[in-house]
Amino acid sequence: xxxxxxxxxxxxxxxxxxxxxxxxxxxxxxxxxxxxxxxxxxxxxxxxxxxxxxxxxxxxxxxxxxxxxxxxxxxxxxxxxxxxxxxxxxxxxxxxxxxxxxxxxxxxxxxxxxxxxxxxxxxxxxxxxxxxxxxxxxxxxxxxxxxxxxxxx
Length: 153
What we know:
two-stranded parallel ribbon
């Protein structure tokens, strides 16, 4: 049985654990990190007008620790969002049901497309993900969302 990973976020917020800031050299691609997509039941759209099911919600944040104590500076995240914006519009940015251990998204594990990503003034990254039905991970991610569960991003 796999050992359950405890969140370090409460310890960080209480000042009991140090935050690790990510330093990314220019020209280096940003690795993925773990956070939970936050949405309310009204944010799940069940494929109105012939569209696939999708969610609108918070995909992440900047200047705030993630579950594994990483903090992404606004400047770097803004650069990365812009770098993949065209790919998002062309349905070339995929996400996985689980956070990839190696930081790289694999098509064989894809559960959704990331169609939009926006960095808000308050540091939230909001966006739209569209589930890929007919795939094992896409169907599981959609079932979790329908049941009100949290999805990792």
